[in-house]
Amino acid sequence: MHVYYAAGAADFKIYMTAAHMVHDGDASQLYDLGAQSHTQQLIYPLFPVGNDPLPYNHPAAEALVFLPLALVATTPAYYIFFVINVLMLFTALFLCRRAMPAWDTQVRLPLMLLAAAFYPVVMCLFLGQDSILLLLLYALSFHAIRRGHLFFGGLLLGCGCFKPHLVLPFAVLFFVVRRRWKAAQGFAVGAALVLGSSLWLSGMDGLRGFLRLNAETQQYRTWLFNPHLMADLRGLIQSVLASQFSFFPLLLIIIIISLIFFTWCVLQLLKIHPPADGRNSDGGLNIEFSFCVISTVLVAYHVYPYDLTILIIPFLFLLEYAIVIAKKGRVWVLTGIGFFLLLPLQTIANASQLYFLFALDLLLLAFVSAKWMYDKNDELSQTTFSTSTRQA
Q1: Which 3 state secondary structure label does DSSP give 284?
Q2: Distances (CA, A) of 177 to 35, 65, 274, 309, 322
C-alpha cells in the first residue's frame, strides 16, 4: 500500500499542502479551502481534489515542522517522513526503557516488536500522521521531569499544542493538580510559542479561519469526525446515542459526561500526596503518568486510531508494573492491554466501525491505574513513616 499512500492517499498530504502554502507565501490563506484545493491539486496531480480537499486543520505553527520537505518532491518527502517517524519511535521507546529498570531483566519483551504490534503505530506510519511526534514529546517530557527538570519537561509538552486536545487535559492533571508549578510554567511557555508562531505565520485572520474551519467541518463534513472510529468517551457516547439526539444536545451530553470523568480524575490525584520533587520513586511516577495519559485520551474530543500512539508509554509502564510488582488488578491490565495488541482485532474493529468500543478498555485501565497509583502512594507513605520512626 505504501506506493498508493505516497502518491497522495495518505493524510501526509495535508502537512505537505500547508508546507507548500507557507513556502509560497500563502500562509494568510492557510485555512481557505479554495486555496488548499488549488495547492493540493498542484502537488498531488494524480488525486482529483475538486472543491473538497482533505483539509489542513492544525495550528499554522506545525507547518514549520514540514517546511523543509516542501523542497522535495511529494513522493520522496513521504518516505523521508516515514524514516523520521521510525527514528522518533525508536527514541521514544529508548527513553521509556530507561524508566523501566526491570524490563530487560524480568519482562524481556522486545520494545520495537511490541510497538509494531500496536495498530495505531502502524496506521500512523503509513498515513504519515504526526502522532509519533507527539509521542516523542511526551517521552522527552517525562524523561526531563523524571530527572528533575520540571520547567524543560513542561516546555517540551507545551510544544505539543499542535494537538491541544491531547495535551491540555494532561497538563491540568499532571502539572496543575499535582502542583508541579515549574512544569506548568514551562508548558505555558511552550503553548505560547505554538500560538505565537501560528499568529506570526497566518495572522489574526488565520486564527479566525482556523477556528471557523474546525467548527464547520465537524458539523458539515461528518466523514472527518466519525465517532465510530474514536476510542474515547465522545466516540462511545455518540456512537450509542446518535440516533436518540440531534447534534447540539448530544454535544452537551458528551461535555457533561467528560467533565464528570475528568472531575473524578482530579479527585483521584488529590488523594495522593503532592510530589516532593520530579524524580521517579520506584514506579510511582510511572503509574501517575500513565493514569494521566489514559485519562487525557478518554476526555479528548477528537481521537482517531493513530492518535492512540501516545498510549505506548502508559502501556509499557503498566505492563512492567503488572508483571513485576502488582498483585491485585494484574489480570485486568494484562487482558486490557492484550486486546490493544491484537492487531487483527484492531483491524476488524476499524473496518467494522466498532473502534469506539476500545473506550471501555481504556476506562478499565484508567480505574486500575488509579487504584495502583493510590496503593503505591500509600506504600511510599508507610515507608517514609517507618524510616522517620527509625531515625527518631
Answers
A1: helix
A2: 43, 31, 9, 25, 26
Please report the pLDDT score of residue 246 as a whole number. 84
Mean pLDDT of the chain: 89
Domain that holds residue 17: 2-391
Nearest one of 309, 307, 295 to 169, comparing CA atoms = 295
Cα–Cα distances in angstroms (integers) from residue 36 to residues 18, 27, 32, 91, 218, in the given order: 8, 11, 6, 33, 18
Taking alpha carbons only, the member of 140, 150, 153, 158 closest to residue 179 is 150
Asked if residues 270 and 288 have their Cβ atoms less than 8 Å apart, the reply is no
| Integer angstrom CA distances of residue 130 from 120, 171, 359, 372, 387 | 12, 20, 22, 31, 47
- Measured CA to CA, the distance from residue 343 to residue 323 in angstroms comes to 22
Residue 132 phi/psi, 5-degree rounding, is -70, -30
- Give the range with max mean pLDDT: 281-285, 313-317, 371-375: 313-317
Q: Which three cell numbers stand for residue 320?
A: 512492567
The predicted model scores a pTM of 0.93
pLDDT over threshold 50, residue 73: yes
| Closest residue by Cα to residue 29 from 5, 53, 8 | 53
Per residue in 242-296, pLDDT tens? 888 887 899 899 999 999 999 999 999 998 887 754 444 456 899 999 999 999 9
**What type of residue sits at position 9?**
A
CA distance 306 to 132: 9
Domain count, the chain: 1
Alpha helix ranges (H) inside the chain: 2-4, 12-23, 33-43, 63-66, 74-98, 111-116, 119-127, 131-146, 150-158, 168-170, 181-220, 233-241, 247-271, 284-299, 312-324, 330-340, 343-351, 358-391
Residues in the chain: 392
User: What is the DSSP secondary-structure string of 329-385?
Assistant: THHHHHHHHHHHT-HHHHHHHHHTT-GGGHHHHHHHHHHHHHHHHHHHHHHHHHHHH
Q: What is the 3-state secondary structure (H, E, C) of 214-254?
A: HHHHHHHCHHHCCHHHCCCHHHHHHHHHCCCCCHHHHHHHH
